[in-house]
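Escalated from tier 1: NAI holo job.
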Amino acid sequence: MTEPVTWHLEGRVGLIAIDNPPVNAASHAVRVGLVRAVDALEGVAEVIAIHGVGRSFVAGADIREFGQPPKAPWLPAVCARIEACTTPVVAVLHGAALGGGLEIAMAAHARVAVPGVKLGLPEVTLGILPGAGGTQRTPRLIGIARALEMIVSGRPIDAARALEIGLVDRVMDGAPPDIARQAASEILNGTLSPRVTGHLSVAPDAEALDTARADIARRLPHLFAPARCVEAVAAATTPLQEGLKTERALFDTCVESPQRAGLVHAFFAERAVSKIPEADALAAPVGKVGIVGGGTMGQGIAGACLIAGLDVIVVEPDADARNAAAGALDTLLQGAAKRGKLADIACARRNLRLATSLSELSARDVVIEAVPEDLSLKLRVFAEMDSVCRPDAILASNTSYLDLNEIAGAVSHPERVLGLHFFAPAHVMRLLEVVVADETAPATVATGFALAKRLRKVAVRAGVCDGFIGNRILSATRRAADEAVLRGASPAEVDAALETFGFAMGPYAAQDLSGLDVGAAGRAVRGEAAPVADALIARGDLGHKTGAGFYEHRGQKPVPNAALTEILAKARTDAGVKQNPPDAQEIIARYTTAMIREGCQVVEDGIALRAIDVDAVMLFGYGFPRHLGGPMHMADRTGLATVISRIERFGAGGAAHWTVPRILRDHAKRGANLIA
Ligand code: 3HC
Ligand code: NAI
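Tier 2 regenerated the structure:
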C-alpha cells in the first residue's frame, strides 16, 4: 500500500503531500504520516507547505473511525504538532477543507485557498463539534460571531469569503503543488507573514454568544450538538490549552450522544443507496428532457431539471394549465436564483419550452410522464410516447402507486421504462425513488441514477409494488395513527406527539396540506377505508384547499375541526374498539413500530435493496428526524426483541398488518442488526 502522506525537500522548501483517496480523510495513517513528515522537515526545511493530492485538501476526520477505540496520534495532537513546529508551515486548500481538514489548516501558520474550495466546519451536521481545536482557533482568526456562524450552521464558505473574513491569507489559482511552492517562496521573501493561530487573542462577544444560545433554544431545542458548539466557542477567550480542554470534554459528550450515531448513519445512508446492482451499466447521457403534464409535479420536475442546466420541454395540452405552468415555473426559477441555487436564470429560461403535443418530444433523451394518477390515461400516454420518442429514449413515469409493469406493457421496448418517483415540491425534495420494473434494463436504471445525481437528488432503487418503498410505509403509519385515534386519542394529540418526536408535521396536519382526497385515491386502489378521513371528505372538508380538514384553517392558527367530535364518536362506536387512549409515548411507539414493521416487510419482499435504503427514503422524502437516523437504525438501537414484542402487543387482536416480518425474527434470533 502506498503511504498516504509523503514528503520531500526542494531546496529550502519542504513539501508534504496528503494522498488518501477518495477525499483525503484524516484517517490514522494520515495522522501518523503528518506527524512524521513535520518531524522530518522541521529545522531541515526553511518553510513547510502541506497540500492535498486528488480532489481535496482534507475532508475532515475519518467518519468511519467514529465510535471505534481512538488510535494515537489523535487529530488534536497532530494539529498541536503542526502549530508548535519551529519551521513555518503553510497549508494549501483545494476541493474540500472541511472539519478536521480546516482544523489542520488553522493550526498551520498561513493558509492559501484555491478558487472553488469549500471551507467549513460541518461537524454539527454529524452531531459533534470541531474537536481538533476548531472551536478555539476559528474565533482567533475570524472572531467569535463569525466562528459561531460557521460552527453552529456547519455551512461551508468559499475562497473569496474566507479571504474577506481572514480565515485564509491568500487566494491563488493553480495546481496545489505549484501553489505550495509559490506560497513557500512568499514566506521566504517576506511577502506572506506566518502567524501562530493559538497565540492570537479573542475579543469577548457576549452578545453574539447570547444570540446564538437564544437562536438554538428557539429553532433547535431537540438537538444536542449545537448548544455544545456555542459553549466550546465561549471558551475561546480563555488561554488556548484551557479552551482546548473544554472543547475536548464537550466533544466527548457529543460523540457519546445517540444523536451522533443517528446523524452519522444518515450521512452514510445518503451514500450507501448509490450502491446498486446496475452500478456498472453504462448510463446514457442526458441533456434533453421531456415532461408530460404541467401540473404540480410536472412543474417541480421541470424546475429541478432547469436548475441542473438541462434543456426541458413540458407538454401540457390544456391552455389554462399551460399558462399556469409557465407562470409558476418562472416564479420557481426566480426563487431559485434568489436563494443562490441558480446562477444563470436567463439560460434556464432559454432552456424551457412549453408545448401542446407529444410529437415535440421526438429528440428527447428522457421523457417523464406526470399526468394524473389514472392507469388508462397513463397507458394511452405511454403508447403515444412510444410512437413519437426516439427508440432509445428512456421513458419514465412519476406514478405514486400504479403498477409500473402494466405501464411498461404499453410500449414496444419495456426495457427502457422505469419509474422516477419525485416528491412534492420536486425541485426541493431530495428523494427520488427509481422504480425498476420486471423488464427494465440495467442501463436504464443506471441512467435514472445518473440523472438523479445531476439533479442533486438522493436516488433509492425500489421494486414494483403498491406505493413502492415510501408510500407503502406511509400507508402503514397512517393506519397506525388511525388506530390510535380509534382508541381515543384525538388527531391533534397524535400530531402533537409525533411533532415532539421530531417530525416537522404530524400525519393529520400533513394530510390537510396534501389534500384528504389524495390519500383517499390511494385507499380506493387498495380497497381500504379510513372512517374519520372518509367522513371529513363526505362533508367536503379536504384540508387547506377547502378551508377545513382535520383542522379548520380559517383563522390565524389551525384549530381542530368542530365536526370531528361527532365523526370520532361514530367511528369509535362503529369500530367497536375498546377505548384506551394512548399517551404520547404510546402513540410514538405505535407509529414508529408500524414504520419499522413495514420497512422490514419492504426489504423482505425485495422492494428495497437493504434496510439502509428504507432509512434513506424516510429521511430524504418523509421528514424522518435526521438525528434519529431512520426507522431501521432506530430499531437496531431500540433492540429487535423489543420491536418484536411491541408488534406482538399491537397485533394482539390478530390484525394482518401487525404480523412480525420474517427478516426481523431472523435478525433478532442471530443477534444481528438490521443495518449491516
Ligand atoms: N470520512 C470518511 N469517509 C468520507 C468522508 C470522511 N470525512 N467524507 C467522505 N467520505 C467518503 C464517502 O462516504 C464516500 O464513500 P463511498 O464512495 O464509499 O460512498 C466517498 O468518501 C466520497 O464522498 P462523496 O460521495 O460525499 O463525495 P462528494 O465529492 O460528493 O463530496 C465531500 C465530497 C464534500 C468531501 C463530502 O464527502 C463531505 O461532505 N464529506 C464529509 C465532510 C465532513 O463532514 N467532515 C467533518 C468530519 S468530522 C471531523 O472532522 C471531526 C474533527 O473535528 C475532529
Ligand atoms: P396534476 O393534476 O397537478 O397535473 C397533471 C397535469 O397533467 C394537468 O396539468 C393535466 O392538464 C395534464 N394532463 C392530463 N392529461 C394529459 C395528457 N394526455 N398529456 C399531457 N398532459 C396531460 O397532478 P400531479 O399532482 O402533478 O400528479 C401527476 C403524477 O405525479 C400523478 O401520477 C401523481 O400520482 C404523481 N405524484 C404526485 C405527487 C403530488 O404530491 N402531487 C407526488 C408524487 C407523485
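The chain has 28 helices and 18 strands.
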